[in-house]
Design a protein that fits this description.
This protein is α/β, with parallel strands linked by helices and 559 residues long. It has a domain at 70-289 and 312-346 and 369-417: TIM Barrel (Alpha-Beta Barrel). Helices cover 26% and strands 23% of the residues. It contains twelve helices and 24 strands. The chain has helices spanning 9-15, 19-30, 80-85, 95-104, 150-160, 175-186, 191-195, 229-246, 270-278, 303-332, 361-376, 405-415; strands at residues 49-50, 55-67, 74-76, 108-111, 134-136, 143-145, 163-168, 206-209, 251-255, 284-286, 291-293, 338-341, 345-347, 380-385, 420-427, 431-434, 443-447, 449-455, 461-468, 473-480, 489-495, 533-538, 543-545, 549-556. Strands 1, 2, 15, 18, 19, 20, 21, 22, 23 and 24 form a ten-stranded mixed beta sheet that branches. An eight-stranded parallel beta barrel has the order 3-4-7-8-9-10-12-14. Strand 5 (134-136) and strand 6 (143-145) form a beta hairpin. Helix 6 packs parallel to helix 8 and helix 10 (303-332) runs parallel beside helix 11. The protein is globular and about 65 Å long. It starts with 8 loop residues before the first helix and ends with a strand.
Length: 559
Amino acid sequence: MQPPTTSAPLCHLRRNVPRVAGFIYALGLAAGLSSCRGEKPLELSDQHQLSAHPIVCHVDPSKVGRDIQRILFGTNLEWFNNADGICRPDGSVDPEWSTLARDEGISNIRFPGGTLSDYYHWRDGIGPVDQRPVRDHATDPGSSPNVFGTPEFIRFCAAAHALPLITVNAGTGTAAEAAGWVAYFNQPSNADRAADGFPGPLGVKLWEVGNELYLPGNPTDKIKVTVPPDVYADRFLEFAAAMRKVDPTIKLIAIATANPTIIQLPYPDWTEVLLKKAAPEIDLIAVHNAYFPMIFGRKGLGAKEVYQSLWASPEAVDHSLGDLDALIAKYANGRPIGIAVTEWGALFSNAPHWIDHIKTMGSAVYLARLMQVFINHPRVVLTNYFKFTDRTPMGWVGYDQKPKVPYYVIQLFARHFGTRQVAAMVEGSPTFSVAQVGITPAESDVPEVTAIAALDNSGHKLFVNLVNRSWQTIHQVNLDTGSFKVADTATAWELSSPGLTDHNGPDLPDEIPSSMYEEPPVHPSAKPAIKIEQKTVSLKSPIILQPYSIVTLELDAQL
């Protein structure tokens, strides 16, 4: 794979972060906070102990909740740097990339980027590849040719068996430009689309209007696109009218806030202002409320302090989604407005000591608990982790096509879970408490073991997902399925590793000097590759959950 075209790969490593991270980083700079280079080595637990008593996971398949649709499991792919490194200069893509996305279970792909979308002009990415312009990056000194545009994106989605989700430019673009993109995709006849090899309409239904325009953005942004909520609400309505005039069947996603952090956002009333003005035209509300722990500028933090704070943060996300649900219900007037978490993931710091911890087993535990939280909120209908791949730590697949541990979290839920949620609760789990760390609020009485459960479409197969957030306890779990009789054995799909910061190896290319990052330490007994392991377990004895592990049980009903 050739390196992406960019004049500043080092700046890209520092600055290719979500817009919200740029905002937090800027706050750190303003406060005079410094880097963590030269910190003491992480102190990791190696004293795992078996719990004294089993805990109980109660599952009641008679209490059926939401449908878990496949669209819930999405990702992000950006146009620049040769589509985060997957695209060759001629616009072609190695089929292995789409195979990786398909095997992961990706259901929808967001394009052309987060921050980048509000600077992207879609006509730059159509027509013959060798005639497309090279464009400067909006947030770093680099530039990229438009080798991965709309035609290439659609082909990639088709190969990955994923739906496209388009974020239109509401920062530096116009409603007419967005409507033109809808026409390219969905009009019965479109000359530009036909010239790109697609004679018939493509039926793209998911459309997001802008990205994080409520934030000041990164310090390196060349054009500031921030607007107040009333301006965005009016702009959304203008875009909605123009886009639906072309295709009334599209689903429109408006950007909003649901803040679970200690940070005061510039427009705390953004979502309410938006809903008051525009709720009748909104199909989904997009929020980016699940980036943690964001310890930019913090020094002297230990592994336990940071990771337990990270593991507790999904509880704050849970509260914020509950508040957002109530706010939507207040203004929806019966309209079924859903929630789309169009960016989420682990994000530590740009300091060398922490920058590459996104890929660890400890981060995977956080991500799994987040997915439990998302599923527990029926209004959350799609999510897009950030991001599929990259030549920086942000990608969940390395530039060398090697999946990192977080990749397998999505695969676990997308490939080894049911479609109809049922009631589940854990009785007797020990808890832990954390102080405020980074942007993460303090949390008390956080359960170490959590569970969700679901049936398959037939109703004859039950899945129970368990997450162990314990620092060192090997938990024993007895499973109670009530009147739903199951076989004496089950298939266990397990993601675990002996060490908290174990990972699947180096993930940064040679153009990134080693002085800019430190590899997280791995346990002496770390697995050669951390991935989902399939086991057969007896239900006549307790299920064993290793510390910082994720297990999904697949149980067959006794008919």
